[in-house]
């Protein structure tokens, strides 16, 4: 007769009538967790103060690890063990003050029966609000209801009223009033610009937009991993590539070609902040290795007929080679070192190749659509993604700080290549170093977008905005408050408030392309029609609805 032998189960951790359980999640990399812990400790104290004022007592569901120097959950195993001990019906606050790997908790939260509140600090020091948006998109993709809340000091009216509501009802109703659904019956489809979008979409559906991704899962971003059926349904299949093979392809690039590539950018005015100690400073060998990656990526694009390409890197190659960022920004630029194939042809001269940073399929979709549309219309076609990193007021206007973790196409920087600075990627995250492509985002009108999925249905939010060049003192303040080694874009979004974006956006990432004012309305019309032709469910955000 069979018998079951399992470890003894302790009683569930069940909060008392006036207690509120909370957990806190962060990075897989312990160096990052230790660095981010003081900010987390500060906000835990602020949360305790806010709960106490409402007659509640916080109850930490897992201990602070004195031997590790922090109190974050830092692996999926640890998160699973923590939730195995929690009453499955208990309300839980997930406090997020740093970048976090959603998979540490998401699978547990998806099965948790009690109400879940994702709570972020709205602070630029470490990307807590970025982590919250990532977890939100992840739980949406898993079909788990949850509430969101964010605050600079855990003392403003939005926070206090939201927390009070969640404690009493287990739910905070999000403000989605800025989103307007657009379907195939909308008059935009019959407009002249809409017809162009349909034509371009039909071409892509016939020929397919193949997205090449090296190891398609990065940084705990479950929201960036789409079902293969979802990609097949919209005519944008994935070419699954291996980063191990990428290293082999990089090794085939001779030193002379690497040197020629680096000289291309130095001659055009890019400033590299060279040092001598590769452990903490940028050295030439690191950038030469990045040039080898740029050339290898271009050869994969040519070999597989890819529409876009992306590298996972951070939990794949981070311990093996220099950071992917320089290669990613450079390949997405129109002005690019002429990448030769092994038989001497130049890979796509005069055209940017959309780069899917961190292999996020939710940005691969809008970036590839934007590129195909803008290129087909003869307009500048560079695209990128950014983290929604932070934002604050300046002279009475709220400006977002969009900051990608390393590089953007040169054309999106003030001054182009000559306006770019190469910093060494922070050693906390990047032990092998490598150059960023940093600088101030240029002024201009932008179209922004983000794709997510529910079930296997792809949904797309589309909006417009204005990128601005803030005065140097203000720009420097924001850069110092975030990550100074990375490119920073400041912008306002048309008809979308800070809190509406925080309530509705389904990712830590947002994709952008620059479009001049004269073409903006037609591009938005065509973009919406193009996406609908791909059978994507489209929502237009804020004032962009007025352009249709």
Provide an overview of this structure:
The chain has 548 residues and is of the alpha/beta class. It has two domains: 19-169, Rossmann fold (3-Layer(aba) Sandwich), CATH 3.40.50; 182-547, L-fucose/L-arabinose isomerase, C-terminal (L-fucose Isomerase, Chain A, domain 3), CATH 3.20.14.10. Helix content is 34%, strand content 19%. It has helices spanning 30-53, 76-84, 106-111, 128-141, 157-169, 192-207, 228-233, 243-251, 255-267, 284-304, 325-331, 361-376, 472-481, 498-504, 517-533; strands spanning 19-24, 57-60, 92-96, 116-121, 147-151, 179-182, 211-214, 238-241, 271-272, 308-311, 383-394, 397-403, 421-422, 444-454, 457-468, 488-493, 509-514, 537-541. A six-stranded antiparallel barrel has the order 11-12-16-15-14-17, surrounded by four helices. Strands 2-1-3-4-5 form a five-stranded parallel sheet. The longest helix is centred in the first third of the chain and has 24 residues, at 30-53. The model has no long low-confidence stretch (mean pLDDT 97).
């Amino acid at each position: 007769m069979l018998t079951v032998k399992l470890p003894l189960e302790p009683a569930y951790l069940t909060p008392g009538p006036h207690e509120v359980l909370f957990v806190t999640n962060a990075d897989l990399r312990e160096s990052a967790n230790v660095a981010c812990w003081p900010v987390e400790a500060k906000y835990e104290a602020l949360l305790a103060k806010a709960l106490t004022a409402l007659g509640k007592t916080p109850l930490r569901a897992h201990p602070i690890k004195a031997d590790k120097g922090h109190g974050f959950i830092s692996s999926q195993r640890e998160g699973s063990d923590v939730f195995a001990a929690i009453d499955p019906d208990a309300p839980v606050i997930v406090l997020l003050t740093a970048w976090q790997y959603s998979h540490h908790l998401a699978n547990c939260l998806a099965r948790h029966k009690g109400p879940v509140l994702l709570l972020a600090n709205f602070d630029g020091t470490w990307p807590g609000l970025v982590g919250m948006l990532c977890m939100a998109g992840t739980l949406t993709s898993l079909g788990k209801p949850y509430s969101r809340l964010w605050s600079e000091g855990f003392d403003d009216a939005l926070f206090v009223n939201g927390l009070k509501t969640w404690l009493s009802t287990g739910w905070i109703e999000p403000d989605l009033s800025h989103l307007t659904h657009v379907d195939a019956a909308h008059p935009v489809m019959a407009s002249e610009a809409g017809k162009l979008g349909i034509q371009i979409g039909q071409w892509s559906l016939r020929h397919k937009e193949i997205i090449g991704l090296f190891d398609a899962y990065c940084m705990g971003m479950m929201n960036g991993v789409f079902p293969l059926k979802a990609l097949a349904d919209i005519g944008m299949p994935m070419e699954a590539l291996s980063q191990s093979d990428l290293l082999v392809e990089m090794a085939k690039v001779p030193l002379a070609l690497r040197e020629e590539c680096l000289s291309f950018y130095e001659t055009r005015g890019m400033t590299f902040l060279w040092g001598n100690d590769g452990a903490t400073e940028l050295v030439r060998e690191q950038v030469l290795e990045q040039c080898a990656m740029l050339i290898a990526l271009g050869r994969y694009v040519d070999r597989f007929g890819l529409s876009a390409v992306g590298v996972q890197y951070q939990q794949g190659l981070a311990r093996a080679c220099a950071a992917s960022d320089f290669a990613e920004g450079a390949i997405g630029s129109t002005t690019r070192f002429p990448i030769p194939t092994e038989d001497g042809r130049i890979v796509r001269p005069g055209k940017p190749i959309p780069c899917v940073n961190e292999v996020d399929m939710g940005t691969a979709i809008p970036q590839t659509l934007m590129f195909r549309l803008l290129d087909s219309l003869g307009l500048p076609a560079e695209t990128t993604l950014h983290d929604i990193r932070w934002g604050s007021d300046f002279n009475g206007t709220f400006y977002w700080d969009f900051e990608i973790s390393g590089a953007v196409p040169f054309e999106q920087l003030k001054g182009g290549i000559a306006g770019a600075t190469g910093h060494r990627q922070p050693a906390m995250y990047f032990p092998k170093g490598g150059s960023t492509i940093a600088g101030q985002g240029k002024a201009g009108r932008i179209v922004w977008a983000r794709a997510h999925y529910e079930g296997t249905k792809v949904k797309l939010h589309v909006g417009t905005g204005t990128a601005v060049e803030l005065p140097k003192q203000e720009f420097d303040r924001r850069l110092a408050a975030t990550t100074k080694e990375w490119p920073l874009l400041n912008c306002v979004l048309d008809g979308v408030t800070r809190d509406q974006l925080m309530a509705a956006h389904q990712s830590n990432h947002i994709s952008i392309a620059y479009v001049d004012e004269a073409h903006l309305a037609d591009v938005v019309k065509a973009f919406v029609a193009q996406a609908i032709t791909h059978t994507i469910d489209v929502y237009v955000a804020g004032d962009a609805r007025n352009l249709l």
